[in-house]
Protein 1
Amino acid sequence: MKRIISIILAVVLVIMPAGVISGEDSGILDSVLNKLAEYTTEQRDGYISYFRPFITTDTGVSAALLNLDSGAMDGIIQEIVGDSVDKPTLRRVFQSFTCIKDETGIRLTYADILQKKIELENASNATLKGMEKLMNVLYKRYPAAEKIFTEDRITAGVVANLFTIIPEINESKPMLKFKDGEFDVNFVSQTFADDFDAVWDGYISKTGKTVTYQQMVDTLVTFLNSKVPQSDKSSVATALDDLGVCKKESSSQSGGGNGGTGGGGNGGTSDNNKPDDTKPTEEETGNYTVLESYDGITDELLGGGFIIKTKADTANVIEISTQAQSPMIYEFSGGKLVPVKYSVPSEKGILAQVKADGVYVVKSLSYPFADANGWGKSFIAALYNRGIINGKSETAFEPDASITREEFVKLVVELFDLNDTALKVDFKDVAEGAWYYSYVASAYENNIVSGIGENMFGTGQKIKRQDMAKIINTVLEANGIRADKASSSVFKDYGTISDYAKDHVLAIYGLGIISGDDNGNFNPNQFATRQEAAKMVYGMLTAFVNSLKE
């Protein structure tokens, strides 16, 4: 079913975005989305394997057309779209994928992003905020889309990643431009347009109009200008600019080049005359005041960020507005910046547990490890900056190395400040004086771990994914964090999960902390890597901080 969603989204986001969102046949999408919304996430997941091959290669498209013509797809198509889309139109939808020349595997990348819900790595807060505003506009037109996206965890980060496909089919040039508060067409690939028009030649919409790619792009511009609130347009344009979809030009009043008089791209004076995009405006502040300077906070410490002072009646957890990329918050204490452990990025900027009348610095996250440059980069950096995780050396993290049981226990104990060096434990393989002794003792005292039998903890052993799930859920439940357990059908290999871990696995899946592999398996006995552990612990951190807000 997600492949059906991917077909719809491909049409929405890549092939004919305006035509489906706001064009002639929007009633078709209404009907399809409403039908999809009737199913559960698990039911939608059931169609992934079936439809994926039909969109990722030209050979697959040919097979899809044969199946359509022979009636082999009739049952599935009827179940999903009913009578809202006829076979000739479906043929054109499948054929449209061949317009995306796939020498670089664009279609496979697209399918992977959606199937695995891969968020755009290191997406700035401004990008995510703009995408959320654009998604909200879509939701107003198609309420069923919000239900599907929410249930299937298609986040702003995932949608942003999908949008990165657009420049790849548009000769690496922005399709749109934004100036003086309005969107317009910037560049349309004639090669892609010709291929698209050939597929849709002869198609007549329900309103009696033909379809061309240029019309689709023109309609998209109309949609953005008419449906996106004026107050949100600059934010949406910034996000699309970051993704290479839109060229955000300076206002004609600001004079000269991208970035205006401030000098240099997005860092200059913006269209809304906001001098520093990382800082909140007065309207955005509530529990804090933005300071221009503070005694002892040097430019070196500030690092391009900004200073806030919380108010006397500040709540325990507050949301601070910022457009800083991957924001991090530090308390200024004793002449130093101390990382605020319980903080996570939020819709507006960053959600943090702070003190009343405290002084803090908000700035972008730093990335300490040269070898941590893959999908786990941001999780590793986030935990390192909060003092929860360390590298194998000062410069190397070894993200793909396995993590041991004691190493993982240390992360959990550090996250929740549970380490008590006075505690004792009598596991035969936990030597008093070893670096991990107090962490294992603290975890045992707090009923987080119980060992592997025969009075052994399992020191030095690689930790299994199901054991990580048990530890994670045990700690979260102890802190009052519970989620509705997912259905056992979410994992094809559910039956191979040990009984002691089954409920824990389903619980943290419900919290979004874990997911299955490409084949829908959890792989309970597989050993986790260091970056996988970082992602799970970061998921715990996010769940905990959000629970403090509630």
Note: Residues 377-549 form one domain.
Protein 2
Amino acid sequence: MSTIRLTAAQAMVKWLSVQMTEDGERFIDGMWAIFGHGNVAGMGEALHAYRDVFPTWRGQNEQSMAHAAIAYAKAKKRTRAMAVTSSIGPGSTNVVTAAALAHVNRLPLLIVAGDVFATRRPDPVLQQVEDFDDGTVSANDCFRPVSRYYDRISRPEHILSALPRALRVMTDPANCGPATLAFCQDVQCEAYDYPEAFFQPRVWHIRRPRPDLDELARVTSLLRSAKRPVIISGGGTLYSQAEETLGEFADKHRIPVAETQAGKSGLSQDHPMNFGASGVDGSAAANTALQNADLIIGVGTRFQDFTTGSRTLFGQDAKLVSINIHGYDAAKHGAESLVGDAKVTLQALSEMLGDHRADEPDMGARQDWLRAVDTYCARPNDQAAKPTDGQVIGAVQRATGDDAVAMCAAGTMPGALKLLWKPSQGGYHMEYGYSCMGYEVAGAMGLKLGAPDRDVLCFVGDGSYMLANSELATAVMRRIPFTVILTDNRGYGCINRLQTMGCGGEPFNNMYVDCNVEVQPEIDYVMHAASMGAHAVKVGGTDQLEAEIKAARSRSIPTVIVIETVAKDFPGTGLETTAGEHGFFWDVAVPQVSDRPKQRDRFDEYLTQIANARLLN
């Protein structure tokens, strides 16, 4: 057997460079890196040696680099991914939040985290976390609960099995998620005689499991007997690339479709069976249909609390079916499981249903909802007044075309966008499984890398922007253009509403005005973004916003548009009714004991609401 002598880090990079997709592209499209003493000598030297065949990207923060990588994988519908390497200690633990985000959202991410010395010769090294009772523990053990695959590379030959295992997980549609390789820093530099065959190019095929015939027959029978079925489409629809199949299925069998955050834009907004968002931030059309449904068919969804109104949205007698690639998700809420790939399962189900069609859904409710959205998002007459988030969304929608992708992650905007943004197919990118503040700017960069022909619109509140904005500088350096709409309401407006309206509390520590501070901050976001090289401007109304959105499309660098907004509720929070729309209950615990009548009244309301929850798990 012929061998080649390489360091473990060199072998890792060489191997990654020849792992291919069915389309002839690298599955791992390069590695994001910030070097420190735990990876600069090993991974740093190796990445330099193979820089002509495996690119390295420099970022500003390990967490946000990983967010960019995750957004790239999401844009590619999990057919390609990126890697992130860090030093030991804080460099590694900075990635833990991103690992959790990828884990919750079922998205592939390869994490190569620098670790302590395998020999333990210089222990304790700089930044080493020591466990007083367990000598095998390091800071990287934090990755264990948020990784789909975890391994510690403490011998150079470990990568012979660890790397294929990591990519097996990342390319498995059922178990997809982050793979973490904690790479001892001395082992990165150790040499080993690796088999040359290990470095032969390999094509990774993403399987499409077909459903069990007995499960298929049971679900077919349920659908045939249902009068008012409704589909809830989740992210699995997009990852299966089943968008066209879903649209054809809904049309053929006359079944309305509601969408989750991850599933939105699987159908374009003008598809006649698209009834809009489901649940807490749902449309009146979708939520009413779901309340009245006798059968609810989940497609690629986890039935998360926002989707189900914390289990209060569906009628107690409604039956549930869950089409999902993983049996764990397919069995949630006591659903009838139909385990399989979304695309082939919908095709098989449609074939068994033949020409069967459900009763005519309430198409008038759908039109009423769309008209209400247009009203809520209409251009305000008073351009001097601060607009609502809905009016901002309307302005951005009017200034963009079918190639636009709206993206966001946390705060008020995710719910507003889910309810009000009217996308073309594929025109929506939301990280809401983990709802991670700080994902937005880095995610927009990763999304643009993954979808270079789309017009990327990043909605971010002032709170999330302050949390993580430094990858603007990276996007400027790499000439990655996208548009940031920075809505400034001077605080955490979303949580302030939840605190005061949803939970019966008093305004406290969310809006700057309600904080224990000596001086109210006056942050110049335009100067801040411009200092990193972005084109930045502040607008005074939605007319100016529309003009700047259009102008941004001609630039090769990010554009940041700042607009002050009113901290006002929007339809879909479940806290009020506006413009003919309504959301649904969200279970956020309310204190049982309080001196304030408002708080006690809210707890009584809470007890009434949770009494309606379905208890099946």
Note: The longest strand covers residues 109-115.
Protein 3
Amino acid sequence: MKRGALLPLILVPGLAVPLMAPPALADPRPETPVRSIDWGACEEEVAGAECGTLAVALDWDDPDGEAIDLALARIPAGDPEARIGSLVINPGGPGGSGVDFALYATEVFSPEVLARFDIVGFDPRGVGRSNPVVCSLDVLQDNPGPLFENRAALDARAAYNEVLRQDCRENTGPLYDHVDSLSVVHDIDAIRAAVGDERLTFFGVSYGTLMGQQYAQAYPDRVRAIVLDSVMDHDLDTREYLSTQAEAAQDVFDAFVAWCEGSTQCALSGQDPRALWTDLLKRADAGELIVPEIPEDPWVVTAEDLIGMAFSSGYGPDWHDFASTLAWLDDPEGVEFPEGAGFPEEESGPLGPQDAAAGGSAQADEGSADQLVPYAYPAVLCNDYALPVRGYGDWSALMRGNQRQVAPDVRYGMLAVDDVASCLGHEEVRNPQAPADASGSEPLLVINSLHDPATGYNWAVNLAEQLGDDGVLVTYEGTGHAVYGRTECTTEVVDEYLVHERLPAEGTRCAAAPVDVEEDTALLEALPQSGADTLADVVSRIRGADARE
């Protein structure tokens, strides 16, 4: 993985009840007790890496009560004499492993950052090696999906969510109800104290930016520098959450069309990509878009499959692959695959979104009904966002009236729809939405792609307005999710801030990196993850496109 290639580490954004600011933000904690981290060797063989655990309160409202262990990894500063302190990092999700992020730090961060900081990553409570939220695989596989054609389907999803919550709570224990991001903020301050830093230097990506925002609000006097790369907006009700993500998804699709119309490397070159897309959606809606090559189980491609694929393609962006796949779906015999590509005889068919969402990379073996798998996502998200829907009438109005107006091609924002569906029936939200307030903190650095499907540029603009003079927004004029390391400009503005505490000027913009590659690539070779070597792999990736990664 090239330095700056954050995507593989990131678990890639109505009618609402009145929300009140979380009391813990309005009443900052006293000085955090200092506990030690016993650093030792990591299980992973990574040069120079150290791993350890830190005991923190399970419930920060009872700091002297039961404790849990957070897993951490550290890459010591390359130049000890020039060392500034620790850079605490989080890759997002929710559910991303900061330990893994730290172990990859030498391939992500610049030589200057690696020389001046210990890179410290942690698995947030409920994630990875830090007492993960675990749920029954058979319950996860019963997920009825995020789209509802009638009241009964919506009610069934709400009932399923309650079954899943109870299952995960029972299998996880009391921590299940304490995995919100505000609890993580207090954990971060415990990490800051344990590594001996008077002030926090933090780098958060995607969902990790919510931690950074809320840390600055809870502990403003303890901030040295906080980078928010590809930001969450924590000041949206249900209608705004859905509409802003739909707008971002449409914006990225429009950017894809503009690229395809101007690039000789687009597999749809010479065609009207928007018209082809519209035709594919029409065929999918009618049940007429079928991939017959899967033995004994032809794949009937749905509109949801296509929309998920379009959404996923904006992360890289992976538009060469996206265009090739659309061309293949339109005319399967007209796209040539590398020699040997195809379904092996033992292939049982591609995984669906539920398999990906459950964290599985392979189908469960027979007899694995009692298997527990990690699945922190809704436990975290639904305690950070109150996203109520007052029945099917509200849902239908939100989907039909609001999103179709702002997203005529892609219809909705895939993640937002899934988030709202996942939180149906969740009433007690520990860390509900409130405007970001970093008053008294050192200014924060906000950086975002102009075209980002997961954390849209509209969220970055909204957050910058909330922060006012307490933040500066830098715009990367390209497409993709996670910005640091994409160009020399995006790297330099972040490094200057982290190392020298120098903010860029208001309105700073970094030009986009080229999308086209030096040599044309075949469909399989263009995939962002190189493990695909059969047609089955390609279809599996497409069908899992609407899962967070």
Note: The chain has 18 helices and 13 strands.
